[in-house]
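Write out the 3D structure for:
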Amino acid sequence: MPKKIDVAALRKVVGTRYPAPYDEPCRKRERRRLGDAAGLTQYGVNLLRLPPGAWSAQRHWHQHEDEFVYVLAGEVTLVTDAGDEVFRAGDCAGFRAGDPDGHCFQNRSAEDALLLEVGTRTPGGDEVAYPGLDLRVVAGQPGFAHLDGTPWPETPRKA
């Protein structure tokens, strides 16, 4: 059985399930789930396309999962507590589990950007914090919750 993944044939996952008003900057992001296509279970790998103006996510950090991002093409801005940092093709960054410095990538350029995302998968789910927002993910609970733990209503993916 061939191991080569036909990336172009993979389904594009466009948009976000963030509740309003947090959904807007992520509606045009596009992921292809490479790790799922390979049958990987211990970590995820995504090919992420960010058109101009799109964000990878709201600024966030994971309690139990590491993340690594490599810029394949284009230019993006990494936003963290330390400020903004421009990344271009060949640049990469890692985000250690439990480090409360939230991060996200924003495409502030006029061209598409292409990123490779790699992250561990925690059995039972992960806790995710979104600094400055009334938003979080609680391990073992579906969807998003308010800071007080009350679930946000489930929302369909918005593109």
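The chain has one domain: 7-137.
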